[in-house]
Design brief:
Elements: H1 3-28, H2 31-40, H3 47-66, H4 71-94, H5 102-122
Length: 123
């Protein structure tokens, strides 16, 4: 296993696990999720759809790890997560909620890293 393959495995698993975890918190209506979404202006009714997007991204990344032929799907999933978390950052900035910007920033960083590593492993 090369260094790039190991990095792909570790970073992508981190991205998958963290997205499944936050999607579960979204679906469960965790207090911190409800408070944060209200603070940045995301309606509670959006949470199931956002959770579905996170789970779809995690699923696409997992499929790309399990089968190299599905790496284009994994790249598309990572791209979708990048867009999702860029939107989350935009909502935080628009609402001027900066104290917890690190959370969507973390998810964005893992999605970007997964995308970059998936693309480099595909070539």
């Amino acid at each position: 296993m090369t260094g790039t393959q190991l990095a792909l495995l570790v970073v992508t698993w981190l991205t998958i696990v963290s997205n499944v975890g936050i999607a579960a918190a979204d679906l469960a209506g965790a207090r911190f999720v409800l408070a944060n979404s209200a603070e940045v202006g995301v309606p509670r009714s959006w949470l199931p759809r956002l959770a579905a997007c996170k789970l779809a991204g995690a699923t696409g990344l997992l499929l790309g790890l399990l089968d190299a032929a599905l790496r284009p799907l994994a790249a598309a999933a990572a791209c979708g997560l990048v867009l999702l978390y860029a939107g989350a950052l935009a909502f935080h900035l628009r609402a001027r909620v900066l104290y917890n910007l690190a959370f969507p920033g973390f998810y964005l960083a893992t999605a970007v890293a997964s995308l970059a590593l998936t693309l480099s492993a595909s070539s």
